[in-house]
C-alpha cells in the first residue's frame, strides 16, 4: 500500500454543498445544474466511455498531440517540477507526458472523485516507480491548498488537459486561470489543452453520439440526485439534448422535460413545463487568438502551442 499524504474533503460537507447547488440551480430561471457533479463513480466511468467514442474526437486528438509532442513539452517544462493536474480522472493522457518528464518530477493529481483519484494514483505509482505521486482530493473550482507538499526549489506547473476549461463561462474561466497563476507563482507555468472551433456537425455529433453514452452521462446527474439527495426524478421523462450556440462559441447540454411534471428533492418540489430545460453543461470552443487573450487577462503569457494537422485541438504552454 502506498502511504499517501492526502488532503480529503468531508463527506457530509460534500453532500451539503451538492444539495445547496442543486436547489439553487433548479430555482434559477432558466434551470441549471453544475457540470462538476457529473463525476461520481458511475459518471466518471461513463466519461471514460465517452472518451473512446468515434464521434468524440477530443480525447483521441489530444492523445495524438501528446503522443507526438510530449517529449518536446517535457523538455520545455524542465527539471524539478511539481506537476499539478486539475481534474485528473483516470490520468490516461497524462501517462504520455509522465513517460517523458524528468525523474525529479513530483506528480500531483487533483480530482473531485475520490475513489477514481486514488485508484488511478495507485496504478500510476506502480507503473512509474521513479516518480513521486501525491494525489489531492479537492474541488479545483475552490482555491487549492498544497501546504508543505512541495519543496522550495521546485517549479509549480499546472497541467489542465481535456478542455475542461471549456466548462467555464469566460469570466469564471479568467477567475480560475487567475487562481492557477496565484497557485504557481512566481516562476510557475500552465500547460493547458483546449478545444478549437470547428465544423458545426463535427461539434454536435461529438455530444450526440449514436450509442447514447453522452445521454446516459447527462441523465446520470438526475440519478445521482435521486440517490444522494432523496430525489424522485423519472429518468424516462427527460431527454438529452446538445446544441452548438454560435454566438457564445459553445456546446450547451440540456435535459429536456418531456411533459409537465413535478419532482421532489428531499422536502423541496420543483415544477417543470413540457419542453422546459435544465442546462447541465457548457463546453466552450476557442480560436487560438481568443484563448491567448483570455489567458493574458489572468497574467499568463503564451510560450508554445502544439496542435494536430486538422487543428481540432490545441495544447499550449504559458508562463507568468
Ligand atoms: C471533460 C468538459 C472536456 O466538454 O467535452 C463530454 C465533458 N460532456 N461529453 C467536454 C463532456 C459531454 C467534456 N469535458
Bound ligand species: N,N,N-trimethyl-histidine
C-alpha Rg (nearest Å): 20 Å
Sheet of most strands:
8 strands, mixed
Amount of helix: 25-40%
Question: How is the topology of this model organized?
Answer:
Blueprint: H1 11-27, E1 31-32, H2 41-51, H3 57-77, E2 81-86, H4 92-98, E3 106-111, H5 114-127, E4 132-133, E5 136-137, E6 155-160, H6 170-184, E7 189-195, H7 200-206, H8 213-229, E8 238-245, E9 250-257, E10 261-265, E11 268-272, E12 277-284, H9 288-297, E13 301-307, E14 313-319
Parallel strand pairs: 1-12, 2-3, 2-6, 3-4, 3-5, 6-7
Antiparallel strand pairs: 7-14, 8-9, 9-12, 10-11, 13-14
Helix pairs in contact: 2-8, 3-4
How would you portray this structure in words?
The protein is an alpha/beta fold and 320 residues long. The protein folds into two domains: 10-37 and 46-52 and 201-284, no CATH class; 57-198 and 286-319, Vaccinia Virus protein VP39 (Rossmann fold). The chain is 37% helix and 25% strand. It has nine helices and 14 strands. It has helices spanning 11-27, 41-51, 57-77, 92-98, 114-127, 170-184, 200-206, 213-229, 288-297, and strands at residues 31-32, 81-86, 106-111, 132-133, 136-137, 155-160, 189-195, 238-245, 250-257, 261-265, 268-272, 277-284, 301-307, 313-319. The strands form three sheets. Strands 2, 3, 4, 5, 6, 7, 13 and 14 form an eight-stranded mixed sheet that branches. β2 (81-86), α4 and β3 form a beta-alpha-beta unit. α2 runs antiparallel to α8 (213-229) and α3 (57-77) runs parallel beside α4. The protein starts with 10 loop residues before the first helix and ends with a strand. The protein binds N,N,N-trimethyl-histidine.
